[in-house]
Request: fold
Amino acid sequence: MAILTILEFPDSRLRKVAEPVTAIDDAIRRLADDLLETMYAAPGVGLAATQVNVHRRVVAIDVSEARNQPLVFINPEIEVLDATLCDYDEGCLSVPGFYEKVSRPERIRVRALDRDGQPLVMEPQGLLAVCLQHEVDHLDGKLFVDYLSPLKRQRIRQKLAKSHRATA
Ligand code: QAP
Ligand code: CO
Reply:
């Protein structure tokens, strides 16, 4: 397993749309394990392959308190069950140091394959529902800052660009 480098906003590679996984082989299982290890090390609750510059539809999540419930979603598809929105203060390992309120559907169903290639269907709520939508957005080249006002997004972009210059 390996800890991978996480791309940071406004890196243009975060805008690439990830390709579906066609076969769950050793390379995909290794990617899933590396995503989990990188997420736990960060530490974070979710990480999408896009964030480590691998443009395949794979997501790792663990929203458990004890950090012992790793979830892997391959080719996840989200269906909105109810248009009612819910606000959550979101952050992102690719936007370090910033948390902002984002509104998303509260009730969703996700269909995916798990790490073993078995079909999985869940109707998550709360943080897991928020996190899944956030991570599937990454696979489509979308970031939580895209839901903010242009002014807020620009401020975050400038502050991160400045910190990237300082550590370059
Ligand atoms: C997505 O994000 C998420 O700014 C996962 O300095 C987050 O794990 C979905 C993190 C919140 C829903 C709610 C962020 C770590 C971790 C930071 C993360 C930071 C260090 C973010
Ligand atoms: Co994120």
About this structure: The beta strands are 46-48, 58-61, 71-90, 100-113, 119-122. The first strand starts at residue 46 and ends at 48. Residues 42, 44-46, 88, 90-93, 96-98, 130-131, 134 surround QAP (ligand 1) (CB under 6 Å). The longest helix spans residues 150-167.
